[in-house]
Design goal:
Largest sheet: 4 strands, antiparallel
Number of domains: 2
CATH class of the largest domain: Alpha Beta
Structural class: alpha+beta
Order of helices and strands: HHHHEEHHEHHEH
Radius of gyration: 24 Å
CATH topology of the largest domain: Translation Initiation Factor IF3
Shape: elongated
Distance between the termini: 50 Å
Number of strands: 4
Length: 187
């Protein structure tokens, strides 16, 4: 922390002592102005405007395949999710995280990237995980037969102890439902 303060002080000193023709814009000036503008905007915005701004920022961060996943979850309500973990030397090693049928169900272009899409959507807060649904056993069996899941099971199953399969589900979160509702309302 002190080093950062000293570094900023030295940069400021160098900028003030440099001839005007050599001095460029201060480091982070654009970001500082943008942050200031956001803070000013936050003071004037309503709760509705704040919610709209949040949803807009989240949507801007999506790729088209992720939008298809959101739409498919809105239509289906739930999709199975598994993690494949290898157990070695008393330690858990994650083999495959967030494998789901939702990519195939959504018709995404890059089906093999579904775990990556799901991870990003979970991080954004647009989707959430649920506990396993034993009554949907057939869907889990289909998911466990997917090529990438089978490869992960084979890779994690080497040695005397087989892989651990953690089952769960995937749904739209409250934020995802709010986004989908706003989409439906806009036509």
């Amino acid at each position: 922390m002190i080093v950062d303060d000293v570094g900023r002080w030295l940069l400021g000193l160098a900028a003030r002592s440099a001839p005007p023709e050599l001095a460029g814009p201060a480091v982070g000036t654009t970001a500082a102005h943008r942050l200031g503008a956001l803070l000013d905007e936050a003071l004037a915005q309503s709760t509705q405007e704040a919610g709209d701004a949040l949803l807009d920022a989240l949507v801007r961060g999506l790729v088209p395949d992720e939008a298809r996943v959101v739409a498919a979850l809105a239509a289906r309500g739930w999709s199975p999710l598994v993690h494949v973990e290898a157990r070695r030397d008393g330690e858990d090693h994650l083999g495959l995280r967030n494998a789901s049928l939702i990519g195939r169900q959504a018709g995404v272009a890059l089906v093999r990237r579904t775990p990556f899409y799901v991870t990003r959507l979970l991080a954004s807060g647009l989707v959430a995980t649920t506990p396993e649904r034993p009554e949907r056993a057939e869907e889990y069996e289909v998911l466990l037969a997917e090529p990438d899941v089978l490869d992960a099971i084979r890779a994690a199953g080497r040695g005397p102890v087989g892989p651990r399969i953690r089952r769960g589900g995937l749904v739209l979160s409250d934020l995802g439902l709010q986004l989908w509702s706003s989409r439906q309302a806009s036509g």
